[in-house]
Amino acid sequence: MALSASAMASVVNAIDPAMIVSHKFPEVTFGYDERDVALYSLGVGVCSADAEDEKELQLVYQRNGQSSIKVLPTFVSSFIFKSGSGLRLDVPGLNYDPKLLLHGQHFIEIYGPIPSRANVTNKIKIAGLHDRGKAAVLELEILTCLEGSDDVLCMNRSTMYLRGAGGFSNSSQPFSYATYVANDVSNVTFPDSTPSAVYEERTQNSQALLCGLSGYLDPLHSDPTFAHAAGFSHPILPGLSTLGFAVRAVMRSFCSMEPTAVKRISCRFLHQVYPGETLVTEMWLQRQIQSRRVYYRTKVKERGRAVLSGYVLLEHTFSSL
């Protein structure tokens, strides 16, 4: 959606980088249980094609002596919505139009098994701020620890594009700040070879509403009037929900749906998905000494449009092909 001159003028030069990068967020403690885990799994398509799927039932139901259900690795992406207003930040010095915010990239690192019920604490910081001319790029990092402990379960890093909020620094030496060395969600180059695996799955018409039960409460995903005003023909699926579908495709293809095999997830959001559309995920396996990296690209079958790309790092896995 193109920005009008008035929209650009209303938010340009509204960024104070010194205030933003020095901002200290309060820690946020919250709890979740197996109901939350199961609702999330259903929201990203678990058992939607086959309610008796043996490998996916373990994500929503205790059976055959299981002491607890297993947790999809992308469940931890829902933790970012436990901190205030999620990705719509209220930070001193950060003035922007929320309607012009795009969640462009996401990175997840998992440091150990994710329990199916726990009390945890989010520790939040600004991980990056960059002036891209027409847009400001803001990176938010959330470390999640068990309550009362310094043991980190996982890390989420979200990259947001604030359209119209760039131009807040000298164009000859634009402002750029980051707390980490390398950009783990950089562009992925796909090989010309045939994919190692391809997985196809249709989303449900109510998929975005199901995702809302896990905290994706932006009206863009549920309110037709709001979606139309934002330039979409219908409410769209949350990008992190599409990521959940893609990572499930990787897990079904390369680690027999074992959640603890997934150690790192990187993605770039490319285009919207409408509930009811069919997702086709192409995957290329790259073997490494102690791990396997799976590059993936997810397309909407009906429109032939790539909507998501990235990689998943797997450890101690075997292919289920």
TrEMBL record:
InterPro entries: HotDog_dom_sf, MaoC-like_dom, MFE-2_N. Coiled coil: none annotated. It comes from the Eukaryota. Residues 191-300 form the MaoC-like domain. Residues 30-164 form the Peroxisomal multifunctional enzyme type 2-like N-terminal domain. This is MaoC-like domain-containing protein.
